[in-house]
Amino acid sequence: MCSIFAFVVFTALICTTLALEKLKDLTDVLEANSDVSQFTSLLTSSAFGDLYANISFQQDITILVPNDDAFSKIENSQIGDAFKYNRSDAIRAILQYHVIPGIHRSDSYNGTFEFNPTWLDNPKYDNVTGGQVVGGVLQSGDLNIFTSGYGSRSTVMETDIAFKGGIIHTIDTFLIPPVGFTGTCTAFNLTAAGGAIANASLAPLVDTTEDITIFAPNNLAFQNLGTTLSNLTVAQLSDLLKYHIVSGSHRVHYSDSLLNGTSLRTRQGGSITFTFASNSLFVNSARVLQQDILLANGVLHVLDNVLSPNA
């Protein structure tokens, strides 16, 4: 019996070895794909040779490779200056952000966002336990999408291109490394929330606290408060805003963890509760309008109402 088992294991190992030998290495696969020639040139350049060598020797990784069309979009994106002024540290961080440990095939994603840690370890863009993440989802029509900083979306053009160390998905837009709340709120027209944070002197808290989850009311929500907000003291305003912030658990609360009935303790000291109704997620009585906007140090969710710790 043992000898049969040993033979089966041996045969499986031989088959696996032969299968791996048939796969091309990363260099051959990239060079064979003419649609990613610019990425190949960038990654294999002398400036990033060490990073390329490290990637080449890995096993079980997934690389999101921007195609040549993605390079034409760089100039008008948040990473435009990094390439315009050849800021090698920033470009290195961008490249690292496109490498995901583990094999993540296109059919492993579904209609619920999955957040995968990446190689990005630059403290400017990564202050989350386990490493900065990208969001992956399968949308209608079997379309794989990855989301990154500033809510940027990258569509997968070619899936599951195998090489000896893992797989490649080509994407039509570069992933954008996330930045902090104050750098993100303007892009989503959360000017009232940004202004309130500044007035309460909470910018350092929201931008530097590790593993932060922020529930930011939109502009209309603040407008609906009328003069209530302007009548608050700085201490009262700070207390109100901290009721919209969760941190301290070494965990970022992406939407997939906010299950019906979940309760979280806020920086203010009170708790907020999550319910799912009418096909929407609610925080207390506020509806979540937009989920999972990635931040350098966590995640941001947008609400349609200001939460009250006294409600």
Q: How would you describe this structure to a colleague?
A:
The structure is a single chain. The protein is built from 12 helices and 14 strands. With 311 residues, the protein is an alpha+beta fold. It has a 7-stranded mixed sheet with strand order 2-1-7-6-5-4-3. It is elongated, with a radius of gyration of 22 Å.
Our measurement of the CA-to-CA distance between the termini, rounded to an integer number of angstroms, reads 69 Å
Structural class: alpha+beta
Tally of contiguous helical segments: 12
Helix-strand pattern: HHHHEHHHEEEEEEHHHEHHEEEEEE
Main-sheet strand order equals 2-1-7-6-5-4-3
Q: What is the average of the pLDDT values? A: 92
Classify the helix fraction into a percent range. Answer: 25-40%
The parts where pLDDT drops under 50 for at least 5 residues are 5-21
> How many strand elements?
14
Residue share in β-strands:
25-35%
Radius of gyration over all CA atoms, rounded? 22 Å
Quaternary organisation: single chain
Shape: elongated
